[in-house]
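## retry 2 of 3
previous attempt timed out at serialization; input unchanged, resubmitting
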Amino acid sequence: MMRYFCTYFDHRFLPRALALIESLRSWCPEFRLWALCLDEAGYDAMHRLSLPNVELISLAELERRDLELLTVKESRSRVEYYFTCTPSLPLHVLRHSPEVELITYLDADLFFFADPEPLFAQLGDGSVGIIPHRFSRRVADRARFGTYNVGWISFRRDEDGMACLRWWRDRCLEWCYARVEGDRYADQKYLDQWPSRFRNVRVLEHKGANLGPWNLASYRVTERDGRVWVDDEPLLFFHFSSFQRVAPWLYNTNLSSWHVRPYTTVRRRVVGPYISVLERLRYPAAAPGPAERRADEGLAARLQRKLRAIGRIVGGLLAQDHLVVLRGRVL
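## retry succeeded, writing output
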């Protein structure tokens, strides 16, 4: 059965978006994905690749067809404007692609390890599908950023699905900032209201869906029969939030900030395959990109900066946050 997805990214996130697409191609027999390219460099790179099953949307096109979105651009930081675009993207697809009855938004830093069909089975005839963070006990306070995660959200082209999507877009146009303010945080905390505000919202509870740093400590991840399992359910996709390449031979999982260490199965069977794909796609140095050096920075300042960078690497290695890569493989 054909499945429809959408995602967005700029050139800094391009390799992760390509990894997402490659993983979908491996596990989802029939799909079509709309990719909103948030800058010209990302759009040009994707245009040159001309990937099958992928439809490109430039940011200029989205803004041209959604003038209300463009009017708030100057009042948001770059990342806040990206967050503001989130609901506008699936709404754009539903408005301009009448064949799409169900659209699923995906964060570009997801990576699939199995067919996502079990999630569509859980959604059933639901109009909206959302996935809770399922925060582990030690980071339960992070629920202030939202009970649900924006990483996977499905909307059906029916009265309830469209009402929810339009309401979300209107709220993000009104307020979408990278701070907690009452019952709002970026584009995400609005989701907390959906189960009570809208009909036919389904909370998807598959343990293997949206496994990520915030809930990894709650489960036992194992390998069995050639598959990765999350307790008693197969891993469907992992959310590689805040994942970075800090050197040509070194990746930072950022798991320690969530009180998690990547034990052997996670390192070899979850993180390892992702890094292998990124290495093959020639992941660029340090995401979201190194800070530009000040023109007047002296020798002492440069030395201090390098020493701090070395200190962070050593600290990451000691915390087992950093993973060393040799010839595309995690050591």
